[in-house]
Every structure is written in C-alpha cells, then in structure tokens.
C-alpha cells in the first residue's frame, strides 16, 4: 500500500511516565478531596504533554477506549489566544507553530495516531477533526496504521464527514473555506454505530425524484421506484444523517456556550458523535480537550471519560465546566510524572 514518508519518521516509545493524582472531585461538590468511590472508577482530567500522557495511559487503558475524539492543531502557523472569560495562565490557548517544518508536524501526528490506535478498543471508533491543511496527510497516515496493523476485516476509514458552517470572512482569490473534516476510523467491521439515535425527520421537503401521495390515514407519503421496487416513506419517519453536516452552527463570539477558549467546538457536534458511536458507560478519550466539550458531553450522556491537555488554561476551563454539571462519577485531577 502507499506510505507517507518524511524526515525522521519513527515509531514512538510506548513506555511513559506515571500519573500522579492531586485529588478527587466528588459528584455534586466543588471541593477537592482524597476520597475515592467504592467501585474504584473515576474519570480523569490530566495535565500533561500529549505524548507522555498517552504513553502513561497505555498501562491501564490499552485496547479499552471505546470512542476517541481529537481536535488537534491543524498546522495553521498561528498562536490562539484566550478570550476575556479566561483569566488563568499566559493568555494563550495553544500555539500551532511549526516553523514551516512539515516533517516535524507529520511525525507529531504519526506519534499521536500510533498511541491512539494502541488505546482504541477492537470495536472502538476514532474521530479525527482537522481541516484542509492536514486532512490529506492524516488520511494516509491513518490508512497505514489501521490497515497494516489490524488483522481484522473492515479496518480503516468509515467516513469523511464534512462539517459546513457559516462564519465571518470571505476570500477574494479563492472559494471561501467554510468547513472542517472529521475522519472516522475503526479497527474492524464490528463497531458501535446507531444512526437511529441521530436521525432527522424526513419532513415534507421533496428529495430526489420522490412522488408525494396522501396515505389512507391522511398523512403525506413519499414514494420512489428503484431497481423494480417501490419504496415508501412517511413524512414523520426518521432519515439517517448523511456525511455533510450543515445543521450544526459554528459558535459565534457572543454565543452563551462560549467559554473564552479559542477554537471551541459546539456541544451539538460532540453529542452527535457520542450518541452515534458509544453506549452508556463506554469510555471516551480526548487528549486535546481544550474547552472541555468532550468530557462535558460524555458526562451528560452517562459515558466515562479521560480528558487531557498540556495547557493550564484549558484544564481550568474544563474543570469549571465539569463542576457546573450534574455529575454521576468522581473525577480526578492528575498530572504526568516523567521517567528520568
């Protein structure tokens, strides 16, 4: 198969440090304590660099994570600053600066994907959120990891989701870039997917060459003939979502959901992904948790979670959002102790 090659390409070391626990936040409290719940499980909010954190998680969670969502740096060459809502840290959400060194960025992506592949369960799902700058590189790297390392049929790319949104700014010498790409990869053909949970009402709008009729009960019915068969659909029936999403809005600057963290993604986007690709009590991981949307949505939907970031401001925003939620489980604050 085709392989992407760059200067310094190497498999990362899988031996990492250990996780140090600062304390635990009990459900419905905002006070840090040293007590753990009876069954021993706790969600984790980890402060640490992505590589050392993922390596440290391998000892306990290799092959056990049911859903992974990441929204990593896109190699924009920019420094993203916090909004006025965030008063902690140096005012920087994150630096996406690579000094135009594509080789370094590709190695960084490769290491990230390698660790995530090791953590992902055999029937798990990996969602990678990028844009036009890096999606094409990510696909080739992910194809290499998922199709050459998995022994099961059906491993690899399942969807290339286009998230189309409206936001300010229009290019004069190119078509306006108004979409992100979310890649869905799995280790096999056996993975969790529930289109019925996120389906949309078919409605009265005409689609394709369907004919509108009125059924015996007086309700509209849409019919279409294909390959000699007649298909009928009620207007109030559920229609599965396609791979171009324009019904989820980009967060505008005054949106009440805004936390002040740059590049924050909307709750509705993560709700759709988690509802489609995970069950209650499944384990969800986001190693670039940023504004905290992934653990917040996981908490609301009854999923367990692991959330990580190297930015102190991101951890502060995420902790604040989580403490405002009605939580089912304890969550711990942790950091990575590197092996010298």
Automatic annotation (TrEMBL):
One Gene Ontology term of the molecular function aspect: N-methyltransferase activity
GO biological process: methylation
InterPro entries for this protein: DNA_methylase_N4/N6, DNA_methylase_N6_adenine_CS, N4/N6-MTase_EcoPI_Mod-like, SAM-dependent_MTases_sf
Source species, domain of life: Bacteria
Keywords associated with the record: Methyltransferase, S-adenosyl-L-methionine, Transferase
Keyword S-adenosyl-L-methionine: yes
Sequence ranges assigned to domain DNA methylase N-4/N-6 in this UniProt record: 65-315
Record family assignment: Belongs to the N(4)/N(6)-methyltransferase family.
Protein name: Site-specific DNA-methyltransferase
Source organism of the structure: Dictyobacter vulcani
